[in-house]
Amino acid sequence: MVFESLSEKLQGALGKLRGKGKINEKDLDAAMREVRLALLEADVNFKVVKDFIKRVKERALGSEVMESLTPGQQVIKIVNDELTSLMGENESKLNFAPTPPTVILMCGLQGAGKTTTTGKLAFNLKKQNKRPLLVACDVYRPAAIKQLEVVASKVDVPVFTMGDKVSPVDIAKAALEHGKKNGNDVIIIDTAGRLHIDENLMDEIKNIHQAVKSDEVLLVLDAMTGQDAVNVAKSFDETLGITGVVLTKLDGDARGGAALSIRAVTDKPIKFVGMGEKFDQLEAFHPNRMASRILGMGDVLSLIERAEANIDKQQAIDLEKKIRTQQFTLDDFLDQLDQMKSMGPLDELLGMIPGMNSKALKGLDVGEKDIQKIEAVIQSMTKKERINPEIINSSRRKRIAQGSGTGVQDVNKLLKQFKETKKMMKKFTDMEKSMKKKGKFGLPF
Predict the structure, then answer these.
(1) Half-sphere exposure of residue 419, counting CA atoms within 13 Å on the CB side?
(2) Which of 94, 158, 223, 255 shows the greatest Cβ crowding within 10 Å of its Cβ?
(3) Which residues of 380-392 are buried (b: 16+ CB within 10 A; e: fewer)?
(4) SS3 of the chain
(5) Parallel/antiparallel/unpaired status of strands 244-248 and 216-222
């Protein structure tokens, strides 16, 4: 889960204030000590932590908290506001050139995931009806050009290459002309990974930037490198004047040091975050939503956006009818699993629901293998069994287990799960009918 360790500690520290009728300075100091420790353990920059705690305390000791009827909730709101401010307040979008093409220069250290991120960005832009062109300017790493071509074929976008014997500056200039002639409105230049202390390579990327007059210079950083990522960002910014950061592997970052420090230290926004290996798992970074998730307050907007992007509307309408008429079958259950799968890992989705804290999600691990097992069990049933699971007796269970390559206990577990799901759905429909009778709004299925 994103920021799992930090999230758990912050929620624990602030949870002690929740529900308190009165808060004195001693209570606040104790909570802030835990918050400070949690941030430092998450590898957040020391100066950033110091300033953050100071701002929270100044606001929390003011009248808005001390005279409030719910002082604990007010402190949590202040921490949420300050976390949001720390990460940049609002989403920072790409700057598109008034006259196409827009040139985006990708830079960063080796191994940060630049080439894959370049492909993800192209995929993202295609969904916005842009016509991106990828440019292979990494002439040093063996098979780098081939890797970009493979990535480009997967997201179905063209690649401009001149081999590895031409200088990256000349390749970038030629690519710009090629893009203009062929109607590409965004040109994304994939450059070689370089250490920020390598003066020759830093001069080279500076020359590429000046030659093509990049509209965006995006620094790709591995979120899991923590404080080091911030130091790298400072160096690249001093040389190139980066316009934004892309944090990769945020889905595997339990600490959060890079995400919480970069904006404050460099004054450059995080524009995108990588939330998985698939090409559709590059997301716009929303500081306010991320702050809410860290504090266990959910991220309903992102959940809705994912649902809208991945769930078939007609199927949703048909499902609603089936739930209302109690005709929900194991086939429908399988369809829902497929759609849920496309939205991302279950623990991540549940983490977007307000009130679902990291402790509640611990030990929850419904991965690809678990879903494949459920699919195999359902697909080994006859049509009659899927429509009416009540007919599945012990001999049928044995046959289904054998056919799906699972055990009888797996079949039993699925049938129990399905039964509980139907019960829960019946409760919701009964509640809705009751509310309609009383003249209240129905539940939004």
Answers:
(1) 9
(2) 223
(3) bbeeebbeebeeb
(4) CCCHHHHHHHHHHHHCCCCCCCCCHHHHHHHHHHHHHHHHHCCCCHHHHHHHHHHHHHHHCCHHHHCCCCHHHHHHHHHHHHHHHHHCCCCCCCCCCCCCCEEEEEEECCCCCHHHHHHHHHHHHHCCCCCEEEEEECCCCCCHHHHHHHHHHHHCCCEECCCCCCCHHHHHHHHHHHHHHCCCCEEEEEECCCCCCCHHHHHHHHHHHHHHCCCEEEEEEEHHHCHHHHHHHHHHHHHHCCCEEEEECHHHCCCCHHHHHHHHHHCCCEEEEECCCCCCCEEECCHHHHHHHHCCCCCHHHHHHHHHHHCCHHHHHHHHHHHHCCCCCHHHHHHHHHHHHHHCCHHHHHCCCCCCCHHHHCCCCCCHHHHHHHHHHHHCCCHHHHHCHHHCCHHHHHHHHHHHCCCHHHHHHHHHHHHHHHHHHHHHHHHHHHHHHCCCCCCCC
(5) parallel
Terminal-residue alpha carbon distance, the chain = 27
Contact call for residues 53 and 36 (beta carbons, < 8 A): yes
Encode pLDDT of 81-91 as tens digits: 999 999 988 88
User: pLDDT tens, 166-221?
Assistant: 999 999 999 999 999 999 999 999 999 888 778 888 899 999 999 999 999 999 99
pTM of the model: 0.70
Q: How far apart are CA 362 and CA 92, in angstroms?
A: 32
Measured on CA atoms in the order 145, 150, 153, 155, is the torsion positive or negative? Answer: negative
What pLDDT score was predicted for residue 204? 93
Q: How far apart, in whole angstroms, are the C-alpha atoms of residue 6 and residue 271? A: 22
pLDDT at residue 21 is higher than 50? yes
Distance CA 60, CA 29 (A): 10
Report the alpha-carbon distance of residue 90 to residue 177 in Å, rounded.
35
The single-letter code of the amino acid at 107 is C
User: What would you report as the CA-atom Rg of the chain, rounded to the nearest whole angstrom?
Assistant: 26
